[in-house]
Write a structure and sequence with these properties.
With 334 residues, this protein is of the alpha/beta class. The strands form 2 sheets. Strands 5-7-6-8-9-10 form a 6-stranded mixed sheet. A 4-stranded antiparallel sheet has the order 1-2-3-4.
């Protein structure tokens, strides 16, 4: 007991120990005080605001060198796959040092079109790309999609508003690795597009979602994983906290995976406590992990050719139709 501790270890007399206990714990003096569990007295630390990860200029420069190389790889393979001759293309392939270009082209197109469940092969999504581009070329030219020859896999490049690469995620599904971050990546970086409009802001989790929102030109925030959603909901994500002033009074729809309902709800509550108008949603619970990518694929697959012609001539109208269908398909988290 603390009574014995004070006498035997600290050298208190019996009377002094009782007086100390009476003063400190507000208990009555007794010749046989009840044993008390020992609880060390720890001075509470003042909470410190979370700090965003600091990356050195050299590390950032190296990450962007890799990102630019990956983008160049993807562009060269895209051009080769579509028989587009560009000045300097031959010299690029001469630098591949024996890489089987034909096989890499096949792997690149197969991984993108079929590895993504056919989503970006949708003619509808390409209809929303700038004139003369496809969904694939749009993502490459925007610097969002690259290709790694050594790993033989797609690479998603996460960039800030200035186009500076902050993280690279390799999609090595063929090797059993869904996402592998490149060295010097900031895994807590939050890709986003937040403009000063009345349009809703969508919050989702994942990488393909960035591509979807970019093609549709929606305002968005994409967290990289469920752990980042949890941190954001607790106010411990420095990168997310920096966005809070821009989210005040904005309508926000959180549509992360349907197997993370509690985290989504907590994030909505945190945002509303900071002045936003946020609601957490989920898609059908019939399929675990059903998310925006699945909904987008199913939605466009169900449309007719007449709607495709409309998308080509009036893309803004079809974007509004997609958003309306999206909200109809969503359920609020109770």
């Amino acid at each position: 007991s603390i009574y014995d501790f004070l006498k035997e270890i600290c050298g208190f007399s019996a009377k002094s120990a009782l007086e100390y206990l009476n003063d400190f714990f507000n208990i009555s003096a007794s010749n046989n005080p009840a044993p008390l569990p020992f609880k060390p007295i720890i001075k509470a630390r003042q909470p410190q605001p979370p700090q965003a990860k600091q990356v050195s200029a050299g590390e950032l420069a190296e990450l962007n060198r890799v990102a630019n190389e990956l983008s160049l790889n993807a562009l060269a393979l895209f051009n080769k796959a579509h028989y587009i001759e560009r000045k300097g293309e031959q010299s690029f392939y001469e630098r591949l040092n024996g890489i089987d270009v034909a096989r890499q082209v096949e792997a690149f197109t197969a991984q993108f079109y079929y590895g993504q469940s056919g989503l970006f092969n949708s003619t509808f999504l390409s209809a929303f790309a700038p004139k003369g581009q496809t969904a694939l070329s749009f993502l490459i030219l925007r610097g969002l999609l690259g290709y790694d020859f050594r790993r033989e896999c797609l690479a998603w490049i996460l960039r800030d508003e200035r186009g500076i690469a902050k993280a690279i995620a390799y999609n090595q599904r063929a090797q059993g690795l869904k996402w592998l971050r490149a060295k010097n990546s900031d895994n807590s970086f939050i890709p986003r597009q937040i403009r000063n409009t009345n349009a809703p802001i969508f919050i989702a989790e994942g990488v393909s979602e960035i591509a979807i929102f970019s093609l549709l030109d929606f305002d968005f925030i994409c967290l990289q994983n469920i752990g980042e959603i949890s941190k954001a909901s607790k106010g411990t994500s420095a990168n997310f906290n920096e966005l809070l002033p821009a989210l005040k009074d904005r309508k926000i729809a959180i549509i992360a995976d349907n197997d993370a309902l509690e985290q989504n709800k907590a994030l909505a509550e945190f945002l509303n406590a900071n002045g936003a108008l946020a609601t957490a949603y989920y898609f059908s619970l019939d399929v675990k992990g059903y998310d925006l990518r699945d909904f987008t694929r199913d939605y466009f697959a169900s449309l007719s050719l007449a709607r495709l012609e409309n998308a080509l001539t009036m893309p803004e109208q079809e974007k509004r139709a997609f958003m309306n269908a999206l909200f109809k398909a969503l359920n609020k988290v109770a």
